[in-house]
């Protein structure tokens, strides 16, 4: 057996385990991402920086703006099933 054939056989022995390892890593990554679940593995929790915004008396057709900060204080992914809305209460 020549030196060239020995070297080629040796390279083939190293190449096969690398292919197997790569395949195992791809399968493990696929299972990991497939089993993430709906909420990212934890429980989401929503929090807003202010529960009530009081402008007092406002004349009709006068626009008022405000900003609120909504954060996810849980350890899961927060997803909305419906579009969020703000309820305007009169006289509260």
Q: What letter string, H or E per element, gives the SSE order? A: HEE
The structural class is mainly alpha
The tally of strands reads 2
Number of distinct helices = 1
Overall shape: it is rod-shaped
Strand adjacency order, main sheet:
1-2
Give the end-to-end Cα distance, rounded to a whole number of Å. Answer: 94 Å
The overall pLDDT, averaged over residues, is: 78
Share of helix among residues?
Answer: 25-40%
The rounded Rg comes to 30 Å
Strand-residue proportion: 5-15%
Could you name the ranges where pLDDT drops below 50 across 5 or more consecutive residues? none
For the biggest sheet, the summary is: 2 strands, antiparallel
Domains counted in the coordinates: how many?
2
Oligomer state equals: single chain
């Amino acid at each position: 057996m020549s030196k060239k054939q020995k070297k080629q056989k040796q390279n083939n022995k190293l190449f096969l385990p690398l292919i197997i390892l790569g395949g195992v890593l791809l399968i493990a990554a696929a299972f990991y991402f497939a089993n993430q679940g709906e909420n990212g593995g934890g429980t989401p929790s929503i929090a807003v920086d202010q529960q009530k915004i009081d402008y007092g008396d406002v004349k009709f057709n006068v626009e008022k703006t405000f900003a609120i900060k909504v954060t996810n204080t849980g350890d899961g992914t927060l997803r909305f099933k419906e579009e969020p809305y703000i309820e305007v209460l009169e006289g509260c």
